[in-house]
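Section: Multi-chain targets

For targets with more than one molecule, the full set of components is provided together so that the structure can be written out for the assembly as a whole rather than chain by chain. Components appear in the order listed by the source. The example entry contains two components.
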Amino acid sequence: MFPTLIQTAGFTPEQYQNNFVFLFYGLLTAWLVLLAFVGLLAGRQRKLQRELERLRLMLEDKGPR
Amino acid sequence: MRNKTIAVLSWFTALLLAGNLAVILLVLPDEVQQGPIFRIIFFHVPAAWTAFLCFFGAMIASVLYLVRKNLRYDAFAAAATEVGLAFGAANLLTGMIWGHIIWGIWWTWDWRLTSMLVGLIIYAGYVMLRRAIEEATERARMSAVVSILAFADVPIIFFSIKWWRTQHPQPVIYGGGVMSPAYKFMLFFNWIPLLLLAVALLLIRMRQEQTGREIDALRREMHAF
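Its structure, encoded as tokens over all components, is:
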């Protein structure tokens, strides 16, 4: 399949491979950016949850007085 | 309920993306002039559309906040801007990788690329501004104004390739350009999972804004003791 495509596109096998490698980099980059954002959200969620729990506990301690 | 919605959206997105990726890599043929790298368009363009939609949503929510003073609109604007920034960054970076192969350069100060970069910098400024202001209503008011002003860049980004002579390819969707129906279908079809992903991220980020408000309320309560 590939040799036919290479002829059609007029690429040398090296150019074709390089083209494909950069397609991989492109897709990887797109998903890494989105994954980094998801990681950021997850980290922030944990931080907020911890702070919320801490404040609730502090209020419970103060509350019954 | 919201957790369930996010989980369903995420799973549906993952399945759809896996299916689309298989079709993009294994079924669709190479573009004759560009070769395999052309396939990056199926993520590059929908990522830009998603980012623009998020910025549009943020602008509308900002206007609504200024009119109604409801912090839920502010939460939506903040969430949409951050999600838009992530998709915008993915768009710009994939474009640079495509440009490296097709143009032989990573970057050029072309109208489209430059206006997109400027847009992302302005929206990053919006995020930084929000972190710099402590008081919730003041933060919401100031960031709503910035969001409305920042949106002025979005039409410039979108129409830059029509208005000015650019190195960036001319529009194939709204500019009378030609694209194979199979490519065009996949371009729109791959937008669906990206949109669903954006909605899931938006819901998560909005819940964080809500949690942040709860924390503020608890802190005020603590100080009242």
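DSSP finds two helices and no strands in chain A.
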